[in-house]
Write a structure and sequence with these properties.
Elements: H1 2-12, H2 15-37, H3 44-61, H4 79-84, H5 94-116, H6 125-133, H7 146-160, H8 164-178, H9 192-215, H10 222-227, H11 236-246, E1 253-257, E2 260-264, H12 268-292, E3 295-296, H13 300-314, H14 323-335, H15 343-362, H16 364-368, H17 373-401, H18 416-419, E4 424-425
Antiparallel strand pairs: 1-2, 3-4
Helix pairs in contact: 5-6, 5-7, 6-14, 7-8, 7-14, 8-9, 11-12, 11-17, 12-13, 13-14, 13-17, 14-15, 15-17
Length: 434
């Protein structure tokens, strides 16, 4: 697989290769927009998020108030900037402007991944993954605001290596848009790199929060709505309840709550508690890894970020289909570095992405919500792959940075590519220039 990736990478580095990638991006993104605009494959349910939910929030936000009275408002205050951003294109309708700006964010991510491939240890595999995998989600990426958030996270990771303060700023801003981009800092090398990145993130977040507080009322009102979320159908806990219902071991129902389909019935609160407990355990493991890590390569911050988001995604009570956009973006960043340990994990994410589209929107109303045998199979398989990816990601990250290196010099018996990575001891830093 490594030799094949190297061959493809070499073929795409020329002018013809770059033109081919640009043409592929244009063709696939045009198709994605068409699917969003026309009513095909259930995409009308994707489009309604912009035309109704986001547009309604816009009408409230322009008055200087966060829409905290809407139980669907569960986002940090800087998300307001995303929903107000269509004002940048006043000659278009709200829907048209939002989609256009989202497509621009997609293009910026692709350009960033291509530029990262120019580094001494760079690879175009990340750009190829992004170009080919995102369209598997059909129109969904352009019907949600998660591409904008993913741009901040990808930008943070790509900047951390050479411009760590800027990387920290992007992570801090991302945290005030949707929290999770702050986890991109989990793998920064101990020492000055971490200090600069974290201080910059905190400073950027504080300044942005202060500015938002000047222009909007009740900037932290989202916390109450988020804390009351239950078990969404698509989550890992939801798939367990769906399987229990299929075999007659659980009696419950599906109901719309907080803008999503959630399970109600016996044991749901216990499943929610287990999910929160697994999140805490996952966070504790990440802290333990950071304390125990002894070796950093140029890929370690990227790999750790993907690992962290996988852990928090699979243990979430929600796990909406747009979460796959985050995972595809971070997996692509990992593959921009030849020394990544997450290559097989990225393949699992690709498979999970395809299954996510089969779940939503293609069979959501006909198979998933009714809890049919086929729907249960799809959901359990998708979540099983994501759980496998999370565990495998943790194991590979631990072996690469914590476990003693075998005498042969490879991190594990199968990863010759990782062995070639420039390693550093704990407390050292990735150099500012390579």
């Amino acid at each position: 697989m490594t030799s094949t990736s190297t061959t493809i990478d070499s073929a795409l580095r020329g002018r013809a290769g770059r033109l081919a990638m640009a043409g592929f991006w244009l063709a696939t993104r045009t198709l994605m927009v068409v699917l969003l605009v026309v009513n095909l494959h259930g995409t009308s349910s994707v489009r309604v998020e912009i035309t109704q939910t986001y547009n309604n929030w816009y009408d409230v936000l322009v008055t200087g108030t966060m829409p905290h009275d809407d139980v669907m408002w569960q986002y940090p205050p800087a998300a307001a900037a995303i929903f107000l951003s269509p004002d940048l294109l006043p000659f278009l309708s709200y829907f048209q402007a939002f989609v256009a700006l989202t497509v621009v964010c997609d293009a910026l991510i692709a350009v960033g991944l291509v530029r990262a491939a120019r580094r001494a240890d760079g690879s175009l595999a990340g750009a190829v993954l992004w170009l080919t995998t995102l369209p598997l989600l059909l129109s969904l990426p352009f019907g949600r605001y998660d591409l904008q958030v993913t741009l901040l996270a990808v930008g943070s990771l790509l900047c951390l290596r050479f411009r760590r303060k800027l990387g920290g700023v992007l992570a801090g801003v991302g945290a005030l848009v949707k929290v999770w981009p702050l986890l991109t800092l989990i793998g920064t090398p101990r020492g000055r790199t971490t200090r600069d990145a974290v201080v910059s993130a905190v400073a950027a977040g504080a300044v942005l929060l202060a500015v938002l507080a000047l222009f909007f009322r009740d900037t932290l009102g989202f916390l109450g709505n988020q804390g009351n979320r239950g078990i969404q159908v698509e989550s890992l806990g939801g798939s367990a309840l769906m399987l229990g219902k299929l075999v007659g071991a659980w009696s419950g129902k599906v109901e719309v709550r907080y803008g999503a389909y959630e399970y109600l019935g016996p044991y749901v609160s216990s499943v929610a508690l287990v999910s929160v407990g697994l999140t805490v355990v996952g966070f504790a493991w990440l802290l333990l890894w950071r304390v125990k890590a002894r070796r950093w390569t140029t890929a370690t911050p990227l790999d750790a970020a993907l690992c962290a988001i996988l852990v928090f995604t699979i243990t979430s009570r929600v796990l909406s289909p747009q979460y796959l956009i985050w995972l595809v973006g971070l997996a692509a960043v990992c593959l921009t570095c030849k020394h990544t340990t997450q290559r097989p994990v990225a393949w699992l994410i690709v498979a999970s992405t395809a299954l996510s589209t089969a779940i939503y929107p293609l069979t959501y109303g006909s198979e998933i919500l009714p809890g049919t045998g086929f729907g249960t199979f799809l959901l359990v398989l998708r979540n099983g792959l994501l759980a496998w990816a999370a565990v495998w990601s943790c194991l590979r990250l631990w072996r690469a940075s914590v476990s003693p290196v075998p005498a042969s010099g490879s991190v594990n018996g199968k990863d010759a590519g990782t062995a070639a990575a420039p390693a550093s001891k704990a407390g050292s830093e990735v150099p500012a220039r390579v």
